[in-house]
Specification:
The chain is an alpha/beta fold and 416 residues long. It has 12 helices and 24 strands.
Length: 416
């Protein structure tokens, strides 16, 4: 789908969507629990729907009821292949879980997912009793049963490898240790996993370089859980507030454990005006200036931060972003290409970008099948005309994105 987004101001109020990352974790815990769980904060994002499909394939029952999801735990009866769509988290979380349950499972992978890194997790699983193979293009077969023991993973590839094992290891009969060979990047996402586990009664004891996970644990449902507002998605709307007219995003918890809440600190470093209360944030435009940003722990913030950099006075360096080359697109290359297409001066770094701020002149952006590149281009329309190819990819995380953008173009409050 191609859209023309004429240059025009963006401003108003946005209700945050439920955190995609937190929902995926809560749904998985609920499917492993001892009784039904009601999950408040339903989402029709493609990644959340992928998790629901795959949990059903493993034998759970997941039904939508308005803005809630009811999850009946996994039974002995599996229901065919697990279609992960393009969701890396779904695959990396459920691969160890299926192995811990002893379920022979075929995972179906789409888009760039078959090419995204899996090697360290694959090797760790095969070293502990699991047999993995690729019987056909876009398929991954998991067989055997995961055995407890000592697991060692690199910390600089994907935090999702750690999360997947943290979900699976409590299900095993014996104790395990999960250690990081190097400090884990995106540590906030592992913290989100540990928080979800605690809500379902699962213990993982911290070690200097990892966790000790007792075996024989049972997931115990708290009855009902609620997903927070999504700081990763909100970052784009907050960036619009720094570039155009004031934007308020509601439903964002000030004390959230989501790492991407640091977008507020980053906005202040650029010079934007930020006001926060218990569950809402307002950002107002102000003269922006370049700065240096390390996104090692918050790589999903790189696209909106890069756009701010392109509109700020001076030069901005974004580093710690090498892992972005293995997202839905080579996201570093896609960010650079999008900004150059709009008239920005961008230089590639080994692990990031150097962006000389100035005036965007407009142009045509290819989303490269990456929802966060499409969102970057959409917010850029606050400063220039944008023609966007592949706009439909926003459905991966926010199917209502274009409706919300239209509300901000008219300056009205957008309800979800």
């Amino acid at each position: 789908m191609e859209l023309f987004l004429p240059h025009g101001p963006l401003g108003g109020r946005v209700a945050s969507i439920a955190s995609k990352s937190q929902l995926q974790r809560l749904l998985l815990c609920a499917a492993l629990a001892d009784r039904e769980t009601v999950v408040h904060g339903a989402s029709d994002a493609a990644d959340v729907q992928a998790m629901c499909r795959c949990l059903r394939a493993l034998g759970a029952r997941v039904t939508a009821d308005g803005k809630t999801l009811r999850v009946q735990p996994v039974t002995e009866q599996a229901h065919g292949a697990a279609d992960c769509g393009e969701s890396g988290a779904t695959l990396r979380f459920l691969l160890p879980v299926a192995a811990a349950l002893g379920r022979e499972t075929t995972f179906r992978l789409h888009g760039r997912l078959p090419q995204r890194p899996l090697g360290p997790l694959w090797e760790a699983l095969e070293a502990h009793g699991v047999r993995l193979s690729r019987p056909a293009p876009g398929e991954l077969l998991c067989a055997g049963r995961l055995e407890s023991g000592h697991f060692l993973l690199p910390g600089d590839v994907s935090s999702q490898f750690f999360s997947g094992l943290l979900f699976a290891l409590p299900l095993l009969s014996g104790p395990s240790e999960l250690r990081a060979a190097t400090p884990p990047e995106s540590a906030g996402y592992i913290a989100m996993t540990l928080a979800a586990l605690r809500r379902f009664g699962i213990a993982a004891e911290p070690l200097p370089d990892g966790w000790a996970v007792p075996g024989g644990q049972r997931y115990r449902s708290p009855g009902a859980v609620r997903a927070e507002g999504d700081w990763s998605n909100a970052a784009f709307w907050l960036a619009a507030g720094a570039l155009s007219r004031p934007v308020t995003v509601t439903g964002l918890q000030a004390e959230s454990g989501q790492g991407d809440r640091v977008i507020l600190e980053d906005l202040r470093r650029f010079g934007a005006e930020v006001e926060q209360n218990a569950d809402a944030v307002t950002v107002r435009p102000a003269p922006l200036h370049g700065c240096s940003l390390d996104v090692r722990s918050t790589p999903d913030l790189a696209p909106p931060l890069a756009l701010l950099a392109a509109c700020a006075a001076g030069t901005t360096r974004i580093t710690g972003a090498a892992r972005l080359r293995y997202k839905e697109s080579d996201r570093l290359a896609s960010i650079a290409a999008a900004l150059r297409a709009l008239g920005a001066d961008v230089r590639d770094l080994p692990d990031g970008l150097e962006i000389a701020g100035g005036r965007l002149t407009g142009g045509t952006v290819d989303a490269c099948g990456d929802h966060r590149i499409a969102m970057l281009a959409a917010i850029a329309s606050a400063r220039c005309d944008v023609r966007l190819r592949g706009a439909e990819c926003v459905e991966k995380s926010d199917p209502h994105f274009w409706q919300t953008l239209a509300g901000l173009r008219s300056g009205t409050e957008e309800s979800r």
